[in-house]
Amino acid sequence: MNEFAQLEANMMSYANSQARDKGQAPPFTVNVQVDGETVARAVNGAQQSSAARAFSPVPAGNPAMIGHVIDTAIEPTLATLRAKGIDYRGFLYAGLMLTPDGPKMLEYNIRFGDPEAQVVLPRLTSDLALHLHEAASGSISTQPTFSDDTVVCVVIAAEGYPEAPRTGDRIEGVEAARALDGVTVYGVGIAEADDGGWLTAGGRVI
Does pTM surpass 0.85? Predict the structure, then answer.
């Protein structure tokens, strides 16, 4: 694990331990698309209790809370970028903690998060390519829309993850899982075995 990955793991572990100790909600995220000026709300959030599971929508992610995050965190960030001559277009992933004093920022990413993307994107009912094109073109005119479905993602990690993931272990049950109604299996850290089966080949496997 490199220093940045270790720092992120330590930060999220500390944040989760603090949340548990103080009876607070786990970390959650707000994803927005921006075109340099305009902010379009991408989703009311994805909530995670660790980097290995997430769900969407988030009950606490009501319009008032999302508006507060945009007004107090995201808009000032974009204003600072513009002041520095940076024309940022694309997605902003805001990682937050819901505290008794309101949402507090933990981190930013300029991409969808993992596993947040796996619960946000399946709920998207509008055209993702259109949203990306509008953001890149500097003119957002279409607001994203989402289904009312609840989506849950659970990550199956390799033995020893995250410090020293073990590779080469046989993976069983993938096809049986894929056959279940409403279940999608994403293979991430996997490799094909000589007999056509699947082996672990990374930290986050499925």
Answer: no
